[in-house]
Amino acid sequence: MLGQFDASPTLPVKDLARARRFYEETLGLAPEGDSEMGVQAYRAGGVALTVYESEFAGTNQGTAVTWPVGDRFDAVVAALRDKGVAFETYDMPGITVEDGVHRAGDMRLAWFKDPDGNIHHVGSF
């Protein structure tokens, strides 16, 4: 039933002003409309990414957003590093990690957190 619709990530944050600085200045997302009632939407490719103030921010321990960046992986990782983003490392069978970049065969993967602990993932797929 829902397979015909685009899905969009919605992320809880504790402080909308701090989240806006991260999503706009660090990740380079442009806001869509004005933030109202503790909510701000952004355009991310063909979908909207929404952040909203919530007391439950930072409680998800799994990946919240995946960014498939394809052959621009190295440039995206370098740009994020230049903006001060620190990459997470995870111990997973069959995957090697070097300088925050995980490798599984030809695939390269990197994870980072926003200021509220929401986990983002960029991949070379």
TrEMBL record:
Q: Where is the VOC domain?
A: 4-125
**Database matches in InterPro entries:** Glyas_Bleomycin-R_OHBP_Dase, Glyas_Fos-R_dOase_dom, VOC_core
What Pfam families has UniProt attached to this entry?
A: Glyoxalase (PF00903)
Q: Which domain of life is it from?
A: Bacteria
Instruction: Name it.
Output: Glyoxalase
